[in-house]
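Follow-up to my earlier ticket, as requested here are the two runs.
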Amino acid sequence: MNADEERQFREFVAARSRSLLHTAYLLTGDWEQGRDLLQTALASTARRWSQLRDRQQPEVYVRRAMYHAQVDRFRLLSWGRETVTDTLPDQPSVQGSDWADTVVQRQDIMAALRRLPKRQRAVIVLRYFEDRPDTEIAAILGVTQGTVRSQTHKALTSLRTTLAEAGPSAANSSIASGRGVIA
């Protein structure tokens, strides 16, 4: 970066750092982490400053860099994090169900999913297996959010009906109650 570019970068930082810091705070929920996030994004921007010709482009670049750095930081921090619970999750359920019932339930659920039309199956998989919001599902499938919601409703209705017809073991599964797909 030459002297003129360095001056332009310093002016940009002086003019926009307050607004960018507020964005960083909103992304992290903490002022100190927000400052660190902003510094990381500004360092990345400084390395690419000479490539950013349009003066609107640096702010977009910094905001995008902050978002991606926060996502990466969240992934690193959440990986391997343990959750404290009252009961051990690897213990058999209180209901006393045996593994054979669980296998049958899962087979019934998978068979019911395979019978759904492709779009409904995709919506259910994206929503309940991948935990994606309606906006992402709509973007992935190239449909509107209303279509996502209606396809979800139709698919859950069909799954509940199919599982109720399959018998009491499948009807008691979590999808019949609308809580998820896998018991």
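Run two:
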Amino acid sequence: MGTVQSTDFRIDAAPRNGHGLSLSASAAKRLATLSDLEGHPVLLRVAVDGGGCSGFQYRFELIQQPEPDDLTILTDGQAAAIDPVSLPFLKGSEIAWVDDLAGAQFVVRNPNAASSCGCGVSFSI
């Protein structure tokens, strides 16, 4: 499996301004697979929206380019983009790919979440 990469956007490989965000090796591997399947690089956009059963919910989407003000984190040549409004809610979090009996999905391991719903998509602070 080859890895499709792009270098025409800003990448923060190390934590900047103390955000402590990380993209796990499992998430990077899944993004590499998705990039290969798509035939072009894809990034994972992670955002926090109001709503869900616990107050906030995570939104994941595959994109080709981050927005100019996004924070972009890198692991093993793969990237995730986080908008500046969502960043405070995600500080210190790990973005991972989990494949278990409950299903295969991207997840956020968020140390800021006081509680979350059973499916892990919504949370409260």
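The only thing I checked on run two: DSSP finds two helices and nine strands in the chain. Let me know what else you need.
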